[in-house]
Amino acid sequence: MNDLNKEKKGFPTSAGIFFGLGLGGFFDGIVLHQILQWHHMLTSAGYPPDSVENLKVDTFWDGLFHASTYIFVVIGLVILWRAAHRTHVVWSGKMLIGTILMGFGIFNLVEGIIDHHILKIHHVNETVPMDQWIYWDIGFLVWGAAMLIGGWALLKAGTRDTRDQLSSRLA
Q1: Which DSSP category does 43 fall into?
Q2: pLDDT in tens, 22-35
Q3: Which of 5, 81, 90, 121 is deepest in the core (most CB within 10 A)?
């Protein structure tokens, strides 16, 4: 049972969360900022994309945003790499997927609350009429909460799977 508890504690939950934070940021920056062009980091903070100068400012801040999400992914990779170097590691894949979803959900919730609602530096979809922005912003938060809850459920299921797998090995 001691080995079981040691392995159970051994899964690097923080690695998956950092991966999810980074992937959530990449999704936001690549899909919402660049492909759909619904907003940039500072479009509601006095830099609407209506001039080359404003686009330069927005692009710079989008780049800093991407750099921070890149750092999250690198941190997740370092944590996972260190944990994976242990011998006889047994983890359910649900644990990694679950923690990535948790991190993605946390990204959406924190970024959505801070940038969309508190600082109001941009909103999810600024291509629709302004009175509809709130619906997109709330939808973003709901999506984040759903990923966080779903990820937590997957992590718990994966923890049970890992425990069961370890129990069968020790029996």
Answers
A1: T
A2: 999 999 999 999 99
A3: 121
